[in-house]
Amino acid sequence: MSLSMVTMAISALIAASSPALAATAPPVSLGSAFLQTVWALLVVIGIILVLYALSRKRFGVGRRGSGRINLVELRHIMPKTTLALVEVEGKQLLLGIGSGRINLLADLSKQKTNRFPDTDSPDFAALLHQEKEQ
Questions:
Q1: What does DSSP assign to residue 87?
Q2: What angle do CA 70, 74, 75 make, to 5 degrees?
Q3: What is the pLDDT, as a whole number, of residue 114?
Q4: Domains of the chain: which residue ranges?
């Protein structure tokens, strides 16, 4: 409910309760109702932006790759089992995540030759296949 609707409802209640008080109440014009609506909308948008900024700061919403640990890719294997390709200080690690445990499956940074010369970083399936061959 907007502020202009509340103002109009209060004016109608005042007019219904006492004609003398209704005569002293200022009339609500279309311009003032529009300005009140715009002001209320700006307040709501401001509150949303403040909450978004706080959630980014507190919970890391919308942040990827800004620190020393980068999540390259996730693959959900089963409902509670996930494979994660993580890059930590230049090392690529394949992690198995499930049932409250995290296990290091492979250290993919031990590669001596670049088997993917056409791309900067290989995709998850290619790295997994390469590690499986070794």
A1: E
A2: 165
A3: 52
A4: 3-59, 69-133
